[in-house]
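If your schedule permits, I should be very grateful for your opinion on a structural question. Kindly check, if you would, that the fold set down in the tokens agrees with what the sequence suggests. Thank you for your consideration; the sequence and its tokens are set out here:
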Amino acid sequence: MAIPDIENNVVPVLDMKKIIMELQGTPYDSAVTSNLVEWNWNDVVDGATLNTNSTKKPTDSGGSIYSMNDWRGYNHFATPSFVNTKSVEKSLATGESNSITVVDTDDTFNIAGTDSWTISFWVKAGWSANLNTNIHFVIIQKSGATKQIEDMVKIIYAENTNRIEVRYGNVAGSGQWYNQGGWLFHANSGNFAAGFQAAGLGSTFWSSSNRGNTGDDDGGSETDYTMITVTNDGTNTAASLRLYWNSTGIGTAPIQTNNNSGSRSGNPISSTNDRRISIGSNGVNSGQASNGQQRKTGDNSATKYNDLTIWNKKLSDSEVTSLYNNGTAIDATTHSAQSNLIGYWKWEGNGNATRSNDNFTVSGSSSIVNK
């Protein structure tokens, strides 16, 4: 069999029938066509194009069809296409042994009150209505904290009032300081109308039986996920917070609390203390004496989370729209603001980060599940 001379661009003509017969151990006879494995070169090419991130397909050069030059130029080692089929689910069981959590030890997520930042994630509501409790989505707090609010940023859904609340703050002596914004979704009037229209929940509260306006998150038939995005411009007031439901900006919070004056202002959020990030639970409960309580609030384990991203800038309206991508999650490392992306977790089989040095541990009854 002739050997291709790649260096001098000399490619011999290959008799594929002969090659196949020899591989089968069948003596070569040009008149015999039986017992041949049936091949279709188009099948070979179709298989190759599954790697859609490759930069060159076998006929792109304009040369003869399926030429060796084309195959040589095809990038068979390119990064695979974006896969997004899994999510993560927090169990009802309490304690760090049943948590979705990570401790940041390189100060990447030491968010302070004067920092600009964005936190975005997709969530599939699994809670029932009339719980009169809070659903904790994401909480960042001091690692080893004894009180929930130590160096804290948290995003929750207060089911009893049908509103998303975002709070950041710190302990201050025996008390605490915080800035908090709240957006409710069941009143189509005044400052609440934007939230009502964005969520699409009507007059009924958000729950597993009423998910409002959703996207599909995976480009398939699943249409039960909502992308929630919170931005902060770094002015250290409740007015600095903005909320997006999917790609729709709801604006500043109609309900604002600023509890950061006087002696409290002398206790800013630390920029050096290591942080713990928890998903689907309250992390350390206020007043809890030990780290890692990780108590899930809600009445079932069906709430799912996916595609958590943390950015060290306030994303603009157009950047949030791009991230939402008409309801189909994108690979955030391809986003126009990806240089500001400091944390990205997709939960595709594990808690490993796509962008960050910190991998989540998914413990005990908490698990990676199909979306």
Notes: The mean pLDDT is 80. The first strand starts at residue 86 and ends at 89. The chain has one domain: 86-370.
